[in-house]
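Example S7 (structure tokens).
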């Protein structure tokens, strides 16, 4: 036995052709269920927490950047105004400018940290448009790699993420330039 782990060859069970994706960190979100996010706006609650607990990587004057709790890819960040507004046309000129500036910085930092090949950037405004949290404006910045597409999301409704959220938050926050 090494570090509390046993050699798999000595464990019970019958080997099969299936690969397993072990994602124990997701159990907290599964057990909380979707109701937990409906009780309180997650984008209003995050800034009141520590950066690590809120998954925040950078704070600005009118907007901030945090990791997506349910990422499409490792490094998937969201740029949110502090104010609880639902759509882009409700944002002040200052909020629009800072959301844009933070998005540009996020791209530079993610390119440096993750060596990604491109990005998906966008806002889903309103539930009908696919917004998971329709009541609070947020812009997605999703790093993409030439090799990140596979059959899991399409066939198995599963996304393989190679890093834990805490590790990604630490790497992105550490690389973020000072304000």
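Recovered sequence:
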């Amino acid at each position: 036995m090494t570090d509390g782990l046993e050699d798999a060859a000595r464990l019970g069970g019958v080997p099969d052709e299936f690969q397993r994706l072990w994602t124990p960190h997701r159990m907290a979100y599964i057990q909380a269920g979707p109701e937990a996010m409906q009780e309180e706006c997650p984008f209003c609650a995050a800034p009141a927490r520590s950066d690590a607990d809120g998954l925040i990587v950078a704070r600005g004057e009118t907007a901030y950047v945090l990791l997506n709790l349910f990422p499409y890819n490792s490094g998937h960040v969201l740029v949110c105004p502090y104010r609880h507004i639902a759509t882009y046309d409700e944002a002040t000129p200052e909020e629009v400018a800072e959301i844009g500036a933070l998005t540009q910085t996020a791209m530079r930092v993610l390119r440096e940290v993750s060596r990604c090949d491109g990005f998906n950037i966008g806002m889903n405004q309103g539930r009908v448009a696919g917004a998971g949290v329709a009541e609070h404006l947020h812009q997605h910045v999703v790093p993409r790699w030439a090799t990140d597409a596979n059959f899991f999301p399409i066939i198995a409704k599963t996304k393989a993420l190679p890093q834990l959220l805490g590790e990604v938050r630490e790497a992105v926050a550490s690389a973020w330039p000072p304000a």
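Notes on this example. The chain has one domain: 42-175.
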